[in-house]
Structure formats: C-alpha cells, structure tokens
Amino acid sequence: MSASFAPECTEAKQKYDDCFNNWYTEKFLKGKSMQNECEDLWIEYKECVEANLVKKGIKPMLDEAEKEAPFEKGGVPLDNSDEKK
Amino acid sequence: MKLFESSCSFNYPWSQVTAANWRKYPNEKSTHVVAVDVLRREVHPITGILRSERLITCEQKIPKWIALMVGGQIRSYVREVSEVDPVNQTLTMRSCNMTMNNILSVYEVVKYVPDNESPFSKTTFEQCAEIKAYSTFQRLTDKIEEWSIERFDSNAKLGKQGFESVLKIFSENLNKSGKLIDEYSEKLKASGKIIDGYSDKASVAISEVGESLKTGITDTSSLLYKTKEKIKHQFFGN
Q1: Which of B27, B30, B54, B198 is geometrically suited to a Cys-Cys bond with B202, CB 3.0 to 4.6 A?
Q2: Is B186 a domain residue?
Q3: What's a single GO MF annotation on this record (chain A) (predicted)?
Q4: Half-sphere exposure of B101 (CA within 13 A, CB side)
C-alpha cells in the first residue's frame, strides 16, 4: 500500500485506504452505497495531509492547479472546456 | 504543442480494472512514485459519480548538478482528478504536472470503459496527452516536444504490459478469496517473472502514461538545461 508524501500521515492514510478499497469494491461498484463510509478515518488522514501541504509548501501549487482545472469540473482545464466528456 | 493518443484493451472486466487502479502503488518497478495521497473525495448525490483528487509524489534519481540547477528540487508533484461513473461505467482520470511546468507541461486524459464487443470481460483504455514545451528557441521547443512524444509512445506500449501483470495477480486474489486482498504488491515482487523484460521506466508507466510522463518531465527538463547551457556556451562563451 502506498505511502503518504508526509511520513507522519502514512499510518492514517493506510487505514483510510483499506477502508476505502473495501467500500469501493463491496459497496460502491455494487450500487449498495453512495455514502463514503470511511468518514472518521478520512477526517484523521485529511487533517494530517492539510497541515503538511502547508508545511512543505505544496499548498500554493495546488491552489493554482485547482484554479486552472477545478475539482467541480472533474479536473478539466478552464481553457480547455470544450473537451468532450 | 503536440498531441499523443493511444488505446488498447485489457482482458478483465471494467470493475476489476478500476479497483486495481486504486492499488497500483507501490510496486517494485515504479520506485520513482514514492507517495499517493487523496486530497478530496466526493460522491455526487444525484449522478452517483465518485470524484477524487490525488497528489502523486515522484522522486527521480537525477544527477546532483541538475538538482542544484532546478533549485534542489528532486521531488515532483502531479495533481490528478478522477471520476468513476458506476452507472455508465466510465473511469476518467485527468492529470497535470505541477512542478517544472514552466519548462514542460503535460495534460493527460485517460479513460477506462467496458469494451464494445465484450463489455463483461474486457476493458478499453484510451489515453490522450497534450504536451507543451516552453523555450525561447522554437527549434528547441520542437525538439523537446518530439522527444517527449517518442518517449510517451514507447512507455505506453510497455506500460500496458505492466498493468496487465498487476491485473493478473489482482484478479487471481479476487477469485481465490472472493474478496480483494491488498497483498498483490507482495506477490508482484515474488513473481518477478511476470514483469521480467520491462525496464524500470516502462513499468513505471503501468498503463497510464501519467507515470511515464512524470519521468519524462524530469528527463526533459534536464535535457533542456543541458541544451541551454550548450547554446549559452556557443554564443557567449562560458
């Protein structure tokens, strides 16, 4: 299982990944659940990641990338919005 | 700007391919991908589409002097946004490099959909990348783009075989236990035979050239630096 970019987040990440992978195959793909059921593990992992994105100076790069290709648009760059979905 | 397109098919059902996709790293061969992090993940309440944003961290073994030139930066980062539509059965991944994108920017779209003819047993993979190099010398820009495309092409072919081996082990585990086990990477290591014959850089790619392009970016930027230095030397001496 892959590590986190911040070593101190790896443990939380792996716990979350385990839960997610199981949810993905057992529930999501089978149409049994639309709710991501790994919420608690996710919150713990996410807090760790967010703090480290700032600490390691990655946050500004991500903000820029998000502006150019918003998450809500599925990562399609704004200057490329005619791309067929 | 240059475009690269390729497609192929995998002999596994779409659902297995998409599940294996989340578990691709680490693997012995693509050691340059040192971390994969999920930044955001949501299920759309109406469409049911699962959207994820990930940060992929790569570490290249590049010569120290090049590392110094690029500001000591050995780590490179790629942002990827993916969408899984379980109703229409599509997995789309869009990725962009965030580091060194002043030299070379690559925007890649990868799609996995059930095969037209055998939708229950095969999955079609389509990939398209837009490669833009930035340089004050047009000829150099062209050269770098051409070189990147060539690299993309060779890595795409080998990458397909790499993903095949991950899928094979993954589906064996699936059949054996009826449940997905997360030890396929261990097995991958053990079954060196399967992945014999590809270079590191090839299996780096594991199918989407997202991975191989990350290697390409670092390589290309070092190439660019070297060439720039040469040009400087020719024109200005030293």
Answers
A1: B198
A2: no
A3: phosphatidic acid transfer activity
A4: 17
B81 and A75 within 8 Å at the Cβ level: the answer is yes
- Is any Cβ of chain A less than 8 angstroms from the Cβ of B38? yes
B182:A85 CB<8 A? no
Are A5 and B50 inside 8 Å of each other by CB?
A: no
In the block, residue with structure tokens 């992090």: B37
Residues 6+ apart with CB under 8 A from B190: none
Q: Which residues pair with B38 in a beta bridge?
A: B54
CA A32 to centroid of chain Cα atoms: 21
At residue B156, the 3 state secondary structure works out as helix
CB contacts of A5 in chain B (<8 Å) are 34-35, 37, 55, 57
B35 vs A contacts (CB less than 8 Å): 2-5
Do residues B110 and B220 both lie within one domain?
no
Per the omega criterion (within 30 degrees of 0), is the bond before B13 cis? no
User: What are the tens digits of pLDDT across the range B33-42?
Assistant: 889 999 999 9
Q: Which distant-in-sequence residues (6+ apart) come within 8 Å of A52 by Cβ? A: A5, A6, A8, A9
Question: Tell me: the pLDDT tens digits for B163-200?
Answer: 777 788 878 877 665 444 444 444 444 444 333 333 33
Whether B187 maps to a domain, the answer reads no
Answer whether residue B57 is part of any domain.
yes
- The ipTM estimated for the assembled molecules is 0.93
